Amino acid sequence: MLIDAVTDILLEAADAAIVPRFRALAAADIAEKSPGEIVTVADRDAEDLITPRLKALVDAPVVGEEATAANPGLVSALWEAPAAWLVDPLDGTANFVAGRPEWAVMAALVRAGQTVAAWIVRPADDRVYVAESGGGAWRNGVRIRRAPAPADPAALRGAAHTRFLDAAGRARVQAAAPRFAELGPGASCAGVDYPRLLEGGLDFVLFWRTLPWDHAPGALLLTEGGAVARRPDGTGYSPADDQAGLLSAAGDRCWQTVRPLLLG
After folding, report:
1. Is the pTM of this model over 0.90?
2. How far, in Å, are 46, 74, 161 from residue 247 at the CA level?
């Protein structure tokens, strides 16, 4: 079964390349791959372990975060190839480097530009989330489904990742914050914030930069679990498009309430 096989690959790569380095990184294990973006030997080694094993399961291009950093043209497989893998070998690298447990290993299978299967593995808290198109969302083998959130903003808790918003966008989020019961900055890890929404810890989450390996797994997890993940114009998410902005929410009424407050 593909779901179980990929889960095993991600867990084994984490056990071999990531977990032993958690809170044990040396200075030489950390580098800056672009301004403000760090990478560790754990990211690179995990991706090197995961990539050939995914190709052995489904012979399709692997669009890994670290491989794409070295060769940006790899991402074109998401719209050019009949199928492609997405891999984020260590989502939340900054948290990992700081010794915080909010990090994940993620993968997704994309066919014809749409995510059809997704995995979020969180070794630090023994959680595995999987989703398959038409097959629901699951945590540690138990199906999970999010009940709709209320439409009253004063009852809603959310997260807004504002780092990649322009000044006007950040000001709009700041102005909207008092309207909500809670509006925080998020966990700096999509592999944490998407499951938090599905499990009820958040009612909505806004991202602006939407690199496909960061968001394809979580977006499918949400839509298979009863939530919504939409672009600012209301269209559904596809990892094959390069639009900015992705607002996810616990149901349509919640999305319709939050969207004008955060995005104008």
Report:
1. yes
2. 29, 26, 10
